[in-house]
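Quick start: load a record and inspect it. Here is PurR-regulated permease PerM:
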Amino acid sequence: MTTQVPQPAPTPDDLPANGSRLRDRGLPRALVVLLGAAAVVVVVAGIQAVAWLIGPAFMALIIVIAVAPVQGRLQRRGWPAWATTLVLVVLVYAVLVVLALGIIVSIARLATEVPKYAAQADGLVSGLTAKLAQLGVGPEQLRQAASSLDIGKLAGLLGSLLDSVAGLASNLVFLLALLLFLTVEAGGVRHRLASIAADRPRIIGALDHFAWGTRQYLLVTTVFGLIVAVLDTIALALMGIPLAFTWGLLAFITNYIPNIGFVIGVIPPALLGLFVGGPGLAVAVVVVYCVLNFVVQSLIQPRFIGDAVGLSVTVTFVALFFWAWLLGPLGAILAIPLTLLVKALLVDIDPKARWADALLRSTPKEADQVAADEAEKAARKAARKAERAERRGHRHPQPAVAGGPASAEPPAPPDPPVPPERTDPRVTP
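Running the structure step on this input writes:
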């Protein structure tokens, strides 16, 4: 009689992936890919249908993530829980109020100031169409071009961009309540994540990386965007461009739009410069914007912090248009945090999806490999420096110095201690 040896239960890593199970049951790979693509289409369509809810909700989450470290620092200094929560709520609402007030003032000034330059814009368009007519352009094409070059459309476009951010207050009760609940529960997130980490450590690692990357991105973008916005506002005010504060605020907001935010921010003040002072002033505005952005974002910013998010330029460019199409202008502003969240949920938590991480990250190698390569380069450089120093020492040996370490005699033994004087009057010398 033989006894069967019990076999250990298979672990989740030993089980085949979902795609492998489907292929084992007879489904071809092409059908699996099509089913996955269909699921993606359904999810994307659902997100687009509720974009009015997802955009503000994710914006509230980003604001809470950005100011959450303040609560942890206050707790480490001994502040009570209610006080840290109150400080966090005040910070969150202060960020929202300052942003809303700046945008409302800018929209109001934009609506009252831009129509004043409609006559200059019409005259400029008329002169341009006359020159094009002299070059042989047909009248029908000229009428279409003249109708498309309308300053009112430009004002409407800028108003929609600013209004999309101000639209966070369109459902004010929902947004304030969501911010309040997220802020109050921010103190217990660490304990919740610790409970999840016992069973799913990769999920916690991915979410921690998402939060860290989001804070790094917001820190870098906010600090240097604020610097660029202040410099742009001062430069525009000195050149006499109307609505300098509005264009500075627009430059700050468009700084969160990767790749093309600078282009969006420079077009309106350049056009106003064209209407006010002619082509020379417009060119001056473009040159000043290019110089300031190049110096701050290309020379100064990389010296403080390198790549803050770890995404390639191509990925950020494609993500910008995708999220702008899916969620509107607010999606363009939140493109980087949204991409980091999707990467954390679909790539970072799955060990079998490292091939996707290789395509998304900014460097061809992983961070550990890059650090190892840098350490190896530093070690080789130090070894070469030591070898050159040793060669110079062999070529030019230093003579022995009299009294130096080579000819030094052993030190003499110390003198015996001198007994103290006896001061007792009863004892005579």
